[in-house]
Amino acid sequence: MAYLDTDDGGRVYYEYHRAPKLPVVLVHGWGMSGDYWASAVEALLADGHAAITIDHRGCGRSDRDFADMSIDAIARDVAAIVDRCGAPRVALNGWSLGGAVVVAAAGLLGERVAGIVLTCGASPRYVQGEGFPHGGTAEDVLGIGAAITADRPGFFRALAEGASGEGASEAMIGWVERGFIATGPRASTTLACLATLDQRDLLASFAFPVLSIGGVRDTIADPAIAGFAANCAQNGTLLTMDTGHSPQLEAPTAYNDALLAFIRTLA
Questions:
Q1: Quick check: 170 pLDDT over 80?
Q2: Are 50 and 21 in contact (CB under 8 A)?
Q3: What is the full DSSP assignment across 169-209?
């Protein structure tokens, strides 16, 4: 484990689990941390692939008092950590808001990206807009900060239930809930970026393979977003799983099998 000292004076936590094959950078969803990728890291290492996990600004073990909490800032952190690790070529996997992060990071890393996985990703858009009828509204997203302020524990409990999927155990819900509660007080500003996010042109510009994974019972990210992302990409593939918003937590064996099958095609 290590820390990246950023240009704006903060520290971002990351772990580089070394192995001989293509490294996979795992970028968590809003309010979580790299810990929620543990099963995927185990599967990647068992298959010989290196894994890099990152805690977003304001989340996990990273500093909580960054002035810039934007998706673009997190993407710059991802690119800088790939540089720090000395990885000449990587695959990127982003869960939920992390999907928007890895698309932005791929724009920075260019030809060093072998492929992208969007795990119930909030990309290329998360809310409705011209030519994009999916998701909720910008007003809904922008209202989340006030909802957190009004009832932080209640809001995060409900969000954890949604992120854990139908029929989740109390242990799972509690684990996810603890991740949300541990976020810094300005983390909602990161989420607000989704109100204006539009990565359609950027995603369409990538020639490398893109695997878009959607959960048919996802109540946090409209499942139609995953299909739109696969169609938007030049070389996109849609994989639909019988899960909610967190297939890597809800169905880890099936998810890891699908992830490895895709990563092996990039080697």
A1: yes
A2: yes
A3: -HHHHHHHHHHHHTS-TTTHHHHHGGGT---HHHHHH--S-
Instruction: Give the strand pairing for 210-215 and 113-119.
Output: parallel
* CA proximity to 114, closest of 140, 91, 82, 137: 91
Angle at 218 between CA 121 and CA 260, to 5 degrees: 55
Angle between helices 152-164 and 170-181 (to 10 degrees): 130
pLDDT at res. 160: 97
User: Residue 14 is inside which H or E element, if any?
Assistant: strand 11-17
What would the two tokens of residue 125 be? 């858009």
Token pair for 225: 């977003």
Instruction: Give the DSSP letter of residue 139.
Output: H
Helix (H) or strand (E) holding 157: helix 152-164
Q: What CA–CA distance (Å, rounded) separates 37 from 35?
A: 5
> What residues are paired with 21 via a beta bridge?
49
* 25-58 tens-digit pLDDT: 999 999 999 999 999 999 999 999 999 999 999 9
Is the peptide bond prior to 124 cis by the omega test (within 30 degrees of 0)?
yes
Nearest Cα to Cα of residue 193 among 125, 250, 114: 125
The reported pLDDT for the residue numbered 1 is 72
Domains defined for the chain, CATH in brackets: 2-266 (3.40.50.1820)
HSE (side-chain half, CA atoms, 13 Å) at 47 = 21
Assess whether pLDDT exceeds 90 at residue 136: yes
pTM of the model: 0.98
Which pLDDT score is estimated for 71? 98
DSSP letter for each residue of 26-60: EEPPTT--GGGGHHHHHHHHHTTEEEEEEPPTTST
Mutual angle of helices 97-109 and 71-85, in 10-degree steps: 60
